[in-house]
Amino acid sequence: MILKYEYDPLDTEDARGHFYHVCQGRVQETELPIPPPDRPYECPHCGIELEQEDFLLAQQRGWA
Ligand SMILES: [Zn+2]
Description:
By secondary structure, the chain is α+β, with helices and mostly antiparallel strands. The chain has one domain (3-61). The chain has one helix at 52-61, and strands spanning 3-6, 18-23, 26-32, 41-42, 49-50. Strand 4 (41-42) and strand 5 form a beta hairpin.
């Protein structure tokens, strides 16, 4: 698991939910925005690249 998705139905300000990178087994506290298709987010700690499709997958399943 590299990405966690949380959606709070009561959170009306951001109905798109929240994404968190799971870095080496630990969920990070910093929320990540969905990156553009051609610019994946590269984690400076574990070096993994989080692509837009990973975020969309996490949005469907709750994780990716
Ligand atoms: Zn990482």
